[in-house]
Design goal:
CATH class of chain B: Mainly Beta
CATH topology of chain A: Immunoglobulin-like
Shape of chain A: globular
CATH architecture of chain B: Sandwich
Strand order of the largest sheet of chain B: 4-3-6-7
Strand content of chain A: 25-35%
Largest interface: A-B, 35 and 31 residues
Number of helices of chain B: 0
Radius of gyration of chain B: 15 Å
CATH topology of chain B: Immunoglobulin-like
Largest sheet of chain A: 6 strands, mixed
Distance between the termini of chain A: 61 Å
Strand content of chain B: over 45%
Helix content of chain B: under 10%
Structural class of chain B: mainly beta
CATH class of chain A: Mainly Beta
Number of strands of chain A: 9
Number of domains of chain B: 1
Number of domains of chain A: 1
Order of helices and strands of chain A: HHHEEEEEEEEE
Helix content of chain A: 10-25%
Shape of chain B: elongated
CATH architecture of chain A: Sandwich
Oligomer: heterodimer
Largest sheet of chain B: 4 strands, antiparallel
Radius of gyration of chain A: 21 Å
Structural class of chain A: alpha+beta
């Protein structure tokens, strides 16, 4: 680009500078909230995300790949969406955290568990489901994310419906 | 008041299995009371299990955990008679702590 042909070279430069600063600022933002699962802090931002993909991104800052080493146990049909027993076990090594997401819930992230050294990577809990939905378990092992998905049909929703 | 937390921790040699049941409304903030007013969100955010001075399991929970939550996990490195400490805090600043002996 030849600055001398432009009407106000200095103004153009200043504008370009401002834009690149703004872009750098935007690029930095996600890092502030990512990797919350690795810390002790409650991942407020991730729990506020509506969609499953956004919640995974906010919690871990990366995407997961499906794995057949994860066994996600959930009922095919849940009569009461208020209490859906869901458990997960895995044969993956070096598991550091396990999270549960319900795709169709008002906010997708249901629970995130930190698995310290010496704790067996298996959790059972009971979740609320607003309606029939995919339930996703995400397991962080050796710095990578793995997922397993099951569909659960709900006949009565768990959100007062 | 009796503790809100009921724990059963059983050891069979290497592995200790822990089951916990907590009394808590776990209100989502989306449900209306019979008088038409929204029941404000009230749920446990953090639940921590410690054994011999070390965190063995930490849960971060949202509103999608069922009322009166139940959780089960297992860990290694504890023996019969060791004490396990369980504590939770909710979004309104409420909390409770209890200890249980591993049987």
């Amino acid at each position: 680009m030849n600055a001398t042909t432009l009407p106000h070279p200095t103004r153009r430069l200043i504008l370009q500078g401002a834009i690149s600063v703004a872009l750098i600022g935007l690029g930095n933002l996600p890092f502030g909230t990512a990797h919350a699962a690795a810390n002790d802090k409650y991942p407020e931002e991730a729990f506020r995300q509506k969609s499953e993909a956004d919640a995974i991104k906010a919690l871990y800052g990366k995407t997961a790949e499906p794995s057949d080493k994860i066994k996600l146990d959930a009922p095919e049909i849940a009569e009461n969406g208020g209490v859906v027993p869901i458990s997960v076990t895995t044969t993956l090594d070096k598991v550091t955290s396990i999270s549960f997401f319900v795709a169709e819930n008002p906010s997708a992230l249901a629970a995130s568990y930190r698995i310290p050294d010496g704790t067996i990577p298996a959790v059972a809990n009971r979740l609320k489901m607003a309606k029939s939905s995919n339930v996703v378990a995400i397991i962080e092992a050796d710095g990578k994310l793995y997922s397993a998905t099951r569909e659960v049909k709900v006949t009565v929703g768990g959100c007062g419906g | 008041m009796a503790s809100s937390i009921r724990v059963r921790a059983t050891n069979n040699g290497d592995v200790t299995e822990v089951q916990a049941l907590i009394q808590h409304p776990m209100d989502t903030g989306l449900v209306k009371a019979p008088n038409g007013e929204l029941i404000p969100a009230h749920f446990i955010q953090e639940l921590k299990f410690e054994c011999n001075g070390k965190d063995v399991f930490v849960a971060n929970w949202g509103t999608a955990i069922s009322k009166d939550p139940y959780v089960k996990f297992s860990f290694k490195g504890a023996r019969k008679g060791d004490e396990i400490k369980i504590s939770w805090t909710d979004n309104k600043g409420g909390s409770d702590t209890t200890t249980a002996k591993i049987a």
